[in-house]
Design goal:
about 270 residues, alpha/beta, three-stranded parallel β-sheet, about 25% helix, elongated
Length: about 270
């Protein structure tokens, strides 16, 4: 049984949302039936225009949805806490996660850190002030002050470090093409054994994404090449939930170009986008 659902930032693409988007999102969360904790990230920070403080969100927010709008500890139930590091602007000037970890005691409480942003070992810009320092995370894990770190920002599922306790789940649906996002469309199911003083953690990945963004690069110089392209497009499953980007190069006769145009016209009607 799932105890809580956590979204580690960028719940929404931005703060200027159509009312319908807010209402449908909250209704979907209501239907989950378990507590849902939302962390403001760089796309939806807790600034003056925050969606989380809008009249519509406040009025329609269901009882099972909690916005992690305060840095620090949030009690889920006795013995289980979330340690949150929400963004209050699009450009933090410090390591927000490191700040909420400082001074946390190893007192037997099970704690999940929920943070957002890049980690220093994965980002080429080492001087960026908002980078999350992996050393601070691993220190808090090693001394037992926290037991798992859920990170948001990267859209591809990514394990950080070697502890097995720091993960980006990635986006639950694909948001870009397959040569940019390597492993989207998953959620992570995290189990923490609270009966063990060391709080061993098991992390499993569940695929929930239903969409695909596919890039096809092809040389097209003959009628045979056009036929092969037609076959490749025909074999792609779930066309109504597949976005295809074509990169075609080559030279065609007028007759073969007409065949190509007819092929593309047919599949433009079948795919979500071509």
């Amino acid at each position: 049984r799932v105890l809580v659902v956590v979204v580690a930032g960028d719940v929404f693409e931005h703060n200027q949302l159509a009312p319908r988007d807010v209402s449908l999102s909250l209704e979907a969360m209501r239907a989950i039936g378990v507590p849902v904790y939302l962390l403001p990230g760089n796309h939806d920070p807790l600034d003056a225009a925050s969606v989380y403080t809008s009249a519509l969100f406040t009025a329609e927010c269901p009882d099972n949805v909690v916005v992690l709008d305060r840095a620090g500890v949030h009690e889920v139930r006795p013995g289980l806490e979330i340690v949150a590091a929400p963004w209050r602007s699009k450009a933090p000037t410090s390591d927000l996660v490191g700040e909420v970890l400082a001074g946390l005691p190893a007192d037997g409480t099970t704690r999940l850190v929920v943070g957002h942003g890049g980690v220093d070992i994965l980002d080429p810009d080492k001087d960026k002030p908002s980078l999350i320092r992996l050393a601070a995370l691993e220190d808090a894990l090693a001394r037992g002050a926290v037991h798992y770190v859920a990170l948001g920002d990267k859209h591809s599922r990514t394990e950080v470090g070697s502890t097995g306790r720091v993960w980006y789940s990635g986006s639950p649906e694909v948001t870009n093409y397959d040569d940019i996002e390597s492993d989207p469309g998953h959620v992570l199911v995290v189990e923490i054994d609270e009966t063990d003083p060391h709080r061993p953690v098991r992390v499993d990945s569940e695929r929930v994404g239903r969409w695909r963004f596919v890039t096809l690069r092809r040389e097209v110089d003959t009628d045979r090449d056009v036929t092969d392209l037609d076959l490749n497009l025909d074999l792609l499953a779930d066309k109504e939930r597949t976005v295809v980007r074509l990169a075609l190069t080559g030279s065609l006769t007028v007759t073969d170009k007409a065949a190509l145009d007819a092929c593309l016209d047919k599949y433009a009607r079948l795919f979500a986008a071509l």
